[in-house]
């Protein structure tokens, strides 16, 4: 519920682009700072990653609609941890996980930076970061996420501007689509 007791307004949908749940629609709840990754950007990201994520462990911090995390699960990820602090968005993520009947998705209603700081190093093959652009979280989110990536694993970041790869990572791929800069960095061996 939003303030005033009204149900949150659904403004539009995004769809899962590939894998088991290809073409499945995900409702996008109207929430401050929520900006789902466009279908075209997600398609490009998963083309870069090679489509099949069988056995991968993925972290979707700042999950929002879950578009990135559900896309990874759709493509075979063994475990997708989604972190979302907003209660309304968390309920929506849980409902999608139930609808898809997936055991691969592990939802946490928590603050992403705190959750990452408490997590074991080198525990993910892929970390997905898409914090609200105007929240000033990119530097601290990248610093918290980088240690969680396994050697030769990937860190994906969306931002309003081009960013340099953090120490220990190579700039693997980059694209600009509208107001979004999508960065895929690969951790050194």
Please provide a brief summary of the model.
25% of the residues lie in helices and 31% in strands. The protein is of the alpha/beta class.
Report on this structure:
The chain is of the alpha/beta class. It has a single domain (3-187), classed as Rossmann fold. It has helices at residues 39-49, 67-74, 87-100, 112-117, 138-145, and strands at 10-15, 25-29, 57-61, 79-83, 105-108, 124-129, 149-159, 169-177, 180-187. The strands form 2 sheets. It has a 7-stranded mixed β-sheet with strand order 5-4-3-6-7-9-8, sandwiched between helices. Helix 3 links the parallel strand 4 (79-83) and strand 5 (105-108). The longest helix has 14 residues, at 87-100. It is globular. The protein starts with 9 loop residues before the first strand and ends with a strand.
Features:
alpha/beta; Rossmann fold; two-stranded antiparallel ribbon; globular
DSSP strand count? 9
Q: In this structure, how is the largest beta sheet organized? A: 7 strands, mixed
Beta content: 25-35%
CATH fold title: Rossmann fold
Helix percentage:
10-25%
Kindly name the structural category.
alpha/beta
Order of helices and strands: EEHEHEHEHEHEEE
Q: What is the alpha-carbon Rg in Å? A: 15 Å
For CATH, the homologous superfamily is named as Vaccinia Virus protein VP39
SS field, number of helical segments: 5
Any idea of the CATH class?
A: Alpha Beta
> Outline, from the CA principal axes?
globular
Give the tally of structural domains.
1
Q: List unreliable stretches of 5+ residues.
A: 1-10
Largest beta sheet: what is the strand line-up? 5-4-3-6-7-9-8
Average pLDDT score = 90
Cα separation of the termini = 46 Å
CATH architecture call:
3-Layer(aba) Sandwich
């Amino acid at each position: 519920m939003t303030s005033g007791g009204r149900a949150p307004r659904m403004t539009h949908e995004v769809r899962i682009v590939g894998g088991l749940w290809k073409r499945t629609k995900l409702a996008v709840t109207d929430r401050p700072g929520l900006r789902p990754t466009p279908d075209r950007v997600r398609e490009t990201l998963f083309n870069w990653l090679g489509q099949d994520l069988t056995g991968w462990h993925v972290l979707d911090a700042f999950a929002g609609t879950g578009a990135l995390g559900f896309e990874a699960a759709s493509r075979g990820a063994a475990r997708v941890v989604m972190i979302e602090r907003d209660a309304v968005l968390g309920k929506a993520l849980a409902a999608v996980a139930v609808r898809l009947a997936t055991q691969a998705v592990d939802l946490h209603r928590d603050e992403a930076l705190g959750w990452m700081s408490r997590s074991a190093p080198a525990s993910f093959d892929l970390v997905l970061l898409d914090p609200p652009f105007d929240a000033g979280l990119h530097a601290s989110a990248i610093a918290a996420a980088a240690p969680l990536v396994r050697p030769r694993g990937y860190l994906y970041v969306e931002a309003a501007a081009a960013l340099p790869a953090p120490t220990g990572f190579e700039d693997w791929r980059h694209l600009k689509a509208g107001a979004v800069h999508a960065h895929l960095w690969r951790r050194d061996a």
